[in-house]
Amino acid sequence: MSAYSVTEPSKASKWVAAALVVLYTIITLLPLVWIISTSFKSGPDSISYPPKVLFEPALEGYVNLFTTRTRIAAEDFAALPPPETWYDQIVRDQGMVIAGQSRFGERFLNSVIIGFGSTFLSIFLGTLAAYAFSRFKVPLKDDLLFFILSTRMMPPIAVAIPIYLMYRELGLSDTHLGMILLYTAVNISLAVWLLKGFIDEIPREYEEAALIDGYTRFQAFRKVVLPQAATGIASTAIFCLIFAWNEYAFAVLLTSGNAQTAPPFIPTIIGVGGQDWPAVAAGATLFLLPVMIFTILLRKHLLRGITFGAVRK
Amino acid sequence: MPNPIEAAARATPAPIARKVRGLSDRAIAWIFVAPTIFLLLAVNIFPLIWTVRLSFTNYAANRPNREVEWVGLRNYTRILTDEGTWATMQTTAHFLFWTIALQVVLGFTLAWLINRKFKGNDLLTTLIVLPMMLSPAVVGNFWTFLYQPQIGLVNYVVELVTGIPASSFSMLGPGGLAPWSIIIVDTWMWTPFVMLICLAGLRSIPDYIYEAAEVDRASKWRQFWTITVPMVLPFLMLAVLFRGIENFKMFDMVNLLTGGGPGNETLLTSIDLKREAFEKWRTGYSSAYAIILFVTVFGLASIYVKALNKVKER
């Protein structure tokens, strides 16, 4: 495009804008870079002052994240056989021995089960409801849609009180099923709104043609609408997954031993005299990295989804 | 407006119409919507009604065998006449005002800069968006490390930039900085959200409006205030609505960063509610508290939406 355009910013203004945005990006990414770099620091390096930018990488944080350790008497420690594995060695270097596995693996797995379970359910139910709202005359449609949306205005703690009592009665406290149902209920409002928007964009003529060809409604929905809405469904699913993955308030109040997810667990990782920062950072890195990678890889759909979902409401 | 499907069905000759087999559309509509409505009734509305009921009692969830008494409106009058509640509301208002103000200014500025369409702006947008995608609990917890007195990165950077000795202040300790510390973290996390919405607004302005303004010799400054700002305003107000609702509910990040402390300096309503409900186990009292909060958000949001619609109509 060589033609002069009044709306095209000048070269100089582009440079200034780019420089300012790069500066903001660097500042905003610093805490995230710090999380990742702290996860590779040794205990003393992590709390040295001035903060160390260059350091010798260590796997102490990751080993401590997955193990529990104890101190033993000095004479017993001296009498130990040489360490068998590299991680034994790392723990020995801290003057301790491995006592067992930590619960981080379990907590991470819970996050995966509850995250994917609730996402699947939200998308399944949400797509059906969105299709019905998009295509059929549903009595009180606008009221129902507003009702679905207004459920998001309640503070989670306010909802948590009766849910806590209800789950106690039903035996759903601290279970995967209980958390999946709860996260589904929270996510479904967003899912219905987003999906309705995506389905509205698919021309009705496609289905009508299929109906005339002898498809039933169900078949038309499954074979015509679903493939068309696949991209929309996928980006909605990512939002549901990220919400369930990150959720903390319900998790910390309603789960403890069995179905606890990683967000309430990571802040409880403690070492000698307070939080074990390299281990906390290692847990945070493992937990946050999938979301960061996802965001960067799927940026087009995600960014569109955020504005689309918000502006549509 | 007549339903085109029905119209098509009526217009279709009988032999073809008979081929549209299976359940009627009406039945399918209900089958599709019912599970969602049922789930929301069970997990949202039923608990809400239960909360209303509990709010008139002195029930305590950790003592299920104690006789439950109806106390009428006592919980409500106690909350509304308690000075602590009003202090908490003030803390929340302070947090809401400053987070929204900072995020609007920063978010709009960033969107405006990114809209210069320089090379690589989409990659930078993605990188800027990263903080809002991450778990506020996990990140909030890590910020306590960045805010450590004496050794924290924040204190170090402040000393480096301003020369104020790092050991002379504590971001989360006593000294009045804690309310600002949570505002900083929230702004860091959520500025990208406001930015994205503003960017959508800026991109929705058609070029020809600026071209027409240019023909009329309107200065850039005038174009900004008479075209850009008014056309982005509805988007910006929407972003403010979402940030307002979300931050009124704020719990996770602040609970891990300060837990309401030091003292009650950062005691936001949700954290206060958690203390009443799950530490002091005053279930009846906290149910009334929850209802008051819900009505407040709902009321404020409704008034705001009315204002928003007026702006949109202009």
- CATH-derived topology of the largest domain in chain A: MetI-like fold
Q: So what's the CATH class of chain B?
A: Mainly Alpha
Which structural category do the helix and sheet elements of chain A fall into? Answer: mainly alpha
The main pleated sheet of chain A reads as: 2 strands, antiparallel
Strand arrangement in the largest pleated sheet of chain A:
1-2
Order of helices and strands of chain A: HHHEHHEHHHHHHHHHEEHH
The overall strand count of chain B is 0
Give me the Rg of chain A, rounded.
26 Å
Characterize the biggest β-sheet of chain B.
none
| Rg of chain B, Cα atoms, Å | 26 Å
DSSP summary: helix tally of chain B: 14
The CATH C-level class name of the largest domain in chain A: Mainly Alpha
Major interchain interface with per-chain residue totals: A-B, 107 and 112 residues
Separate helix tally of chain A:
16
The total beta strand count of chain A reads: 4
Mean pLDDT rating of chain A: 87
**What number of structural domains do the residues of chain A give?**
2
CATH architecture of chain B: Orthogonal Bundle
Mean pLDDT of chain B: 87
